[in-house]
Amino acid sequence: MSTRVGDEPALVSCVGVARSYAAGSTAFTAVRDVTCEVRASNRIAVTGPSGSGKSTLLHLMAGLDTATAGTVSWPAFGGPPRASARLVGVVFQGPSLIPALDAIENVALPMILDGTAADAATERAHAALARLDLGAFARKLPDELSAGQAQRIAVARVLAGEPRLILADEPTGQLDHANASAVMDVLVQAADELTAALVVSTHDPSVANRLRTRWVMHGGSLDFDSRADAEAGQR
Q: Any idea which UniProt keywords this protein has (predicted)?
């Protein structure tokens, strides 16, 4: 389980959590009997093959999905994050930008929906894009961007909200090595600056090796890779 930091409450806690989906007369269990927690200083890579439940687990942690058994709670937040950009930021695996909005509008929108004034949200969006060297793309629509540019703008959208918990689902899966490295640089640096927790699901060993703690999923079950933790601590 993740390392406890003082007496701070967990950002998210899962106890005996399962998630099953019905498909006609059959049911598929994506996550089964998972117990884990994430705290503020954690840097966690969730690894495992496709279909092992990594994405489902992150969606449960984000409050985007509901467990069919067990309990997911957010002790540090006092309740579900309810899509608050100030609490939880999610970087999705596939394209997630709104096609009709340009880059700056895509980055600003979650903050506006969260109650930030439009002018302030736009200012923070510009700062987030500049941080990722994306200022030149502020007025570009998603279909005018490369896959790498679009994913970095999606990362900027999350970081602009200054969340306390960053959940990234295969954020580099569609990127080349250079763009993947750049995205991870920004995620790790931002988590450090915001004192936020960072949880990244990935197939890529080079991505997993950037993070201190390794969780491994197999068939919906979660194992804690103490050997990977020890190796990370030696780097």
A: ATP-binding, Nucleotide-binding
For residues 93-122, average pLDDT: 93
Could you tell me the CATH number of the domain that includes residue 191?
Answer: 3.40.50.300
Structural domain includes residue 101:
yes
The number of distinct structural domains making up the chain is 1
Its pTM stands at: 0.88
Tens of pLDDT, residues 164-204: 999 999 998 878 888 888 889 889 988 998 899 999 999 89
* Boundaries of domain holding 187: 41-52+82-213+220-234
